[in-house]
Amino acid sequence: MKKLFVLWLLLGFAGTSFGQTITILDNQTNEPIELVTLTNTKSHLYATTDSKGQADISAFKNIANIEIRSLGHKTLIKSYAELELENFTVSLEISNFNLDEVVISGSRWRQSSDDVPSKIISISPKEVALQNPQTAADLLSISGKVFVQKSQQGGGSPMIRGFATSRLLYSVDGVRMNTAIFRSGNLQNVINLDPFAIEGTEVLFGPGSVIYGSDAIGGVMSFQTLTPRLSLSNSPLITGKANVRYSSANNEKTGHFDVNLGFKKWAFVTSVTSWDYDNLRQGSHGPEDYIKDYYVQRQDSTDVVITQEDKLLQIPSAFSQINMMQKIRFQPNERWDFQYGFHFSETSPYGRYDRHQRVRHGLPRYAEWDYGPQIWMMNNLNINHTANNSVFDQMSLRLAHQWFEESRIDRSFNKTERSTQEEEVAAYSVNLDFIKATGERNTFFYGFEYVLNDVNSKGELTDISTDISEVGPARYPKSKWQSLAVYVTDEYKATDNFTLSGGARYNYVLLDSEFDTTFYPFPFTEANLKNGALTGSLGGVYRPSGSWVLSANLGSAFRAPNVDDVGKVFDSEPGSVVVPNPDLKPEYAYNADLGIAKVFGDIVKVDITGYYTSLKDALVRRDFKLNGQDSILYKGELSQVQAIQNAAVAHVYGVQAGVEVKLPKGFGFSTDVNFQKGEEELDNGESSTSRHAAPFFGVSRLNYKANKLSMELNVNYQGKYDFDELPEGEKEKTEIYALDKDGNAFAPSWYTLNFKALYKLTTTFDISGGIENLTDQRYRPYSSGISGAGRNFILSLTAHF
């Protein structure tokens, strides 16, 4: 052990030459600025400042143009020689608006948004600190551009441009998070991520299949977790934060701690977060239809309906969660950078609240309907190498292994048979990405990807009166899902003001499933799918001046059938059961969007993007026959047989618009609104609203900033969907919607008024919090099975060191 410890010390302090350190300060406060990005687009060099506002820029020596960017500050371009004359200390001026920033989701490499035709937004850590989102789903919603649906408190299913669930892609540290059991129904996996451990969030709107492959139809949500920071001096760099938070609406008790230990060549980051949420209280003013004032309790071998003392509590919705992350970084020299990350997340079991609202014969439909612990684990090794040879300037190799575990537990009211279905997915991925500049104005991005998902599913039936268990039907067949792909993107700077980019990707997807016919008499025992898919994109960005940006993009995307599409068995709604269908092919999306952004006199910024997407061979749930029968007995109920089929064409179009205004004396105003219209073809040739096309929604904010204080008063709002505007599949879900005078389901409009504040007590301590839903509205976001929080008081204390 002694030898190992000495070796670790030698590696940690190895290297007698020290790089050149730059310090970047705010010109008004003279305080250091963290996460400033320094880049050179020609050589694709980059560096970011640490909590002391410092970065090593020795790799930039002799570079003529170093772009220095920070959100909320004016971009500065300096040569290395100029920085040397200024003793490598730079002060950045405050800027009201930014039309350019550094993004990574467009290509997996850091790029200026000047060169990316797709619409990409970033959610900054400062915004997260002010807003105090409870989950990663809530983090996405604070942008005002992502709609979030919830079926229970322990969840959050983003909707982007009329698409959701398995038609959106999640990326964590550049690794695909989607698995072969991501479903078309609302998907809650984003809560696996820890908002406290995320240093950057980006949302790419529209197709991203060229870079990310299958599923990236409506958009890509890219999360970058905390990066280990190296020391820029002889002394170890020790930084971190600790946070405690309380929220009243669900009695939230949250604690977080992270620490960075950095040496010259080695760095380590450790992060731990624990959440505990009680049952969520909804507001007191709103539709009575949202109130379920009872819950089921087992007493003396009988299910008893208990009337709640507080009818506004949504029981059962309580849950808890723990997240842990450990990252290790080794940078032996300027050319090599090794990073390993371990992530672990586990929830407690929690009730699926929308199912607990179902009734049958005047009594609750279920005595139990819970998700078991949801577990996610990832090992990720990322190797970056700079070579500047004839093949590449930079190379990135990502090797990842993920483990997903989830389960569903249900029991009908006053029945003794409990059904448990458990799923396990082992996901392996290899990404090899390259970047190569060819000439002054041309850059190639290219790479290869391999993904393997190994799916195992099992079922169990337990008689709770005797505690005897036996094997039951599984939700999925035993399956392997594989994807092999190659892609290339070319970025050409035609002029200083105009950048053109285009790309293509070929994907080959294989799916092999083995069906167990013990419980269901399927007329097949296996499914073997082999599908190739070619997708592409072409777009441009034009800047006629520093205050104008125009962008246009054409792109295609695809989604290959996965195990959930081909092989699941489940009750989608009362009286219906979904069965496997081994005869599926990919669905394709074709998209066009046009964006315009303009700054008027450094006082007003306007940003508008219009888009249109057509989805062909859409994978949708339709009536089906199994062994010639259109109905079968499922869990004791005669149910209509349905299956996922390539049976529809869907169209989505809409506008995203934003306005920001800089007002005097530290005040500012902004509004983000989203309008989308989705239409889906039905069996009879008619059309219906697409399920994941949310009604009009947005957020308006009034901000105030002065020295150590930041405050915001905002209004979140959603438009109305009448009964005839609801998707056909939603009209029968009367348990989760309000009812009109005719007893038909509809989604009412709603708003919440919210106040947030953050104050820096000292250089070490911040206090933040606020009041959400000041007027105590009882509201339910479209398609959600649980109401939002009523009046909610939040208090958070953060210590930085």
Automatic annotation (TrEMBL):
Classify the source by domain of life.
Answer: Bacteria
Main subcellular location: membrane
Keywords of this protein's UniProt record, alphabetized? Cell outer membrane, Membrane, Receptor, Signal, TonB box, Transmembrane, Transmembrane beta strand, Transport
Question: What does the record say about its membrane topology?
Answer: Multi-pass membrane protein
Any idea which GO molecular function terms this record carries? Answer: siderophore uptake transmembrane transporter activity
Sequence ranges assigned to domain TonB-dependent receptor plug in this UniProt record: 114-220
According to the UniProt entry, where is the signal peptide? 1-19
Check the record and name the SUPFAM superfamilies matching this protein.
Porins
- Where does the UniProt annotation locate this protein? Cell outer membrane
Q: Which Pfam families does the UniProt entry name for this protein?
A: Plug, TonB_dep_Rec_b-barrel
Q: Does the keyword Signal apply?
A: yes
Q: Which GO terms describe its cellular component?
A: cell outer membrane
Q: Which GO terms describe its biological process?
A: siderophore transmembrane transport
The answer to whether keyword Membrane applies is yes
Report domain TonB-dependent receptor-like beta-barrel positions: 336-774
Q: Name the protein family.
A: Belongs to the TonB-dependent receptor family.
Q: What is this protein called?
A: TonB-dependent receptor
Source species of the chain: Aequorivita lipolytica
